[in-house]
Write a structure and sequence with these properties.
Chain B: Pfam families: OTCace, OTCace_N. The complex is a heterodimer of chains A (156) and B (308). Chain A is mainly β. Chain A has two domains: 95 residues, Aspartate carbamoyltransferase regulatory subunit, N-terminal domain (Alpha-Beta Plaits); 52 residues, SH3 type barrels (Roll). In chain A, 13% of the residues lie in helices and 37% in strands. A five-stranded antiparallel beta sheet of chain A has the order 2-3-1-4-5, covered by helices on one side. By secondary structure, chain B is α/β, with parallel strands linked by helices. Chain B has two domains: 137 residues, Aspartate/ornithine carbamoyltransferase (Rossmann fold, 3-Layer(aba) Sandwich); 153 residues, 3-Layer(aba) Sandwich (Rossmann fold). Helices cover 37% and strands 14% of the residues of chain B. Chain B is built from ten helices and nine strands. Classes of the chains: A mainly beta (156), B alpha/beta (308).
Chain lengths: 156, 308
């Protein structure tokens, strides 16, 4: 594919954040977690099923906004291999892998319908996050119920 | 050990040292709980009883505990006549009530309700059961009963009945794992204890075995903890009766039991314990209900800072 073709698909950004190596098909969930596009005034572009060195991946580019560490780490829940590139003047000035947070608040909802966090109380959901051989486990701080599958479906 | 102003939310908050401390404090409360001594330890203190679900033993024993220590009790009364019926959140109810009292006892149908309450309360919250979640004072009174009537060190205990849904037995097993107990689980296959809980308890130090009948385990245990099997867990009533009859104890079931065997039950019972056992030295379930009083007295004394 020529540079022009690539440029036509999704252009390079001058300043902002590129989230690369998102698990294929999860880009829209990443936008949801980050509250995008509502939380940004710049252009947000999304590539789904883009081909990279390791196979299919998704990419999100957010112009004129540099995402902060803890904000971005939340996406590790559904895209644990994602990398965050901070772009300034068309150059990558910082590149980090997302870190799986040990605690998340207000990102996912509890699967237990009888959990107090699923009522009209003035609280946000809270989960302790642990990494096990079988994958991520989110334990609700209120009722103790564990979410270990289909985390994306529980996004608030 | 500091308990003053602490919330009592989950048994997971307690180390073995903390449990031992509470059980020792409860032992000192027993003469007052029996009415043999008078106390004004909590004189001038008010306890709110906020029960969003029906309860007999837990509510009455908390009330008795407070009254025996010279304190006063403020009861929420009927939910229908309260602001909750108008749609008030639990958070708001707690923020209002904590201005009236020195501690709040809460029972609520939603899991995690007590933790939520503790986030909004400026006075100690004592969890008296939140849905299928935690009921730490029941666990503590079960441990106290075992300590008083048998022994916690080197304990061999069998738990029989509904081990799948019963939060009481799950919590008790977690707590007994702190004491390295040998636990035998007896239940029909439909109501077996979840594998995840068995793994957790084993990892914490308990030794678990499973068997099919009470007769098989009875000769080797110090305590037999019975629970009620709920009819609604079985779609087929015939299947329920078959299972319930198998896990019923009669004097004949106990013929190979140790002389010092104690039988416990969180009550209410239906027919899982033959009433002919009530008058034997094995029966411990009514004492167990009484022991809820000194345990709750100790907890109230500790969180209100009247004892250390």
């Amino acid at each position: 594919m020529s540079d022009i073709e690539t440029e036509l698909r999704v252009r390079r950004i001058e300043n902002g954040t590129v989230i690369d190596h998102i698990t294929a098909g999860k880009a829209l969930n990443v936008l949801k977690i980050l509250g995008l596009p509502d939380s940004s005034h710049g252009v947000v572009s999304v590539l789904i099923n883009s081909y990279g060195k390791y196979g299919k991946k998704d990419v999100v580019k957010i112009e004129n906004r540099e995402l902060k560490g803890e904000e971005v780490d939340r996406i590790a829940l559904i895209a644990p291999n994602a990398t965050i590139n901070i772009i300034r003047n068309f150059n990558v000035t910082r590149k980090n892998k997302v870190q799986i947070p040990s605690f998340v608040e207000g990102v996912v909802g509890c699967i237990n319908p009888n959990c107090i966090s699923n009522s009209n109380e003035p609280i946000t959901s809270k989960f302790k996050v642990t990494t096990e051989d079988t994958g991520l486990k989110l334990r609700c701080s209120y009722c103790g119920r564990v979410i270990s599958e289909n985390i994306a479906e529980q996004l608030l | 050990m500091k308990f003053k102003d602490n919330h009592i939310i989950s048994k997971k908050d307690f180390s073995r040292e903390m449990i031992d401390h509470i059980l020792n404090a409860a032992e000192k409360m027993e003469p007052i709980a029996r009415g043999e001594q008078r106390s004004d330890l909590l004189s001038g203190k008010i306890l709110a009883i906020l029960f969003f679900e029906p309860s007999t033993r837990t509510r009455m024993s908390f009330e008795t505990a407070m009254l025996r220590l010279g304190g006063d009790v403020l009861n929420l009364g009927s939910i229908d006549a309260s602001s909750i019926a108008k749609g008030e959140t639990l958070a708001d109810t707690i923020r209002v009530v904590d201005g009236y009292v020195d501690a709040i006892v809460l029972r609520h149908p939603k899991e995690g309700a007590a933790l939520l309450a503790s986030e909004f309360s400026s006075v100690p919250i004592l969890n008296a059961g939140d849905g299928a979640g935690q009921h730490p004072t029941q666990t503590l009174l079960d441990l106290y009963t075992i300590k008083r009537e048998s022994h916690l060190e080197g304990l061999k205990i069998a738990l029989a009945g509904d081990l799948k849904y019963g939060r009481t037995v799950h919590s008790l097993c977690y707590a007994l794992s702190l004491y390295g107990a040998q636990i035998t689980l007896i239940s029909p296959k439909e109501l077996r204890m979840p594998e995840e809980i068995i793994n957790d308890i084993t990892a914490k130090g308990a030794k678990i075995t499973e068997c099919d009948s009470i007769e098989e385990a009875i000769s080797d245990v110090d305590v037999l903890y019975m629970t009620r099997i709920q009819k609604e867990r079985f779609p087929d009533p015939a299947e329920y009766h078959k299972v319930a009859n198998k896990l019923k104890i009669t004097p004949e079931t106990l013929k190979n039991a140790k002389q010092e065997l104690k039988i416990m039950h969180p009550l209410p019972r239906v027919n899982e314990i033959d009433t002919r056992i009530d008058d034997t030295p094995h029966a411990c379930y009514f004492k167990q209900a009484f022991y809820g009083v000194p345990v709750r007295m100790a907890l109230l004394g500790l969180v209100l800072g009247a004892i250390e």
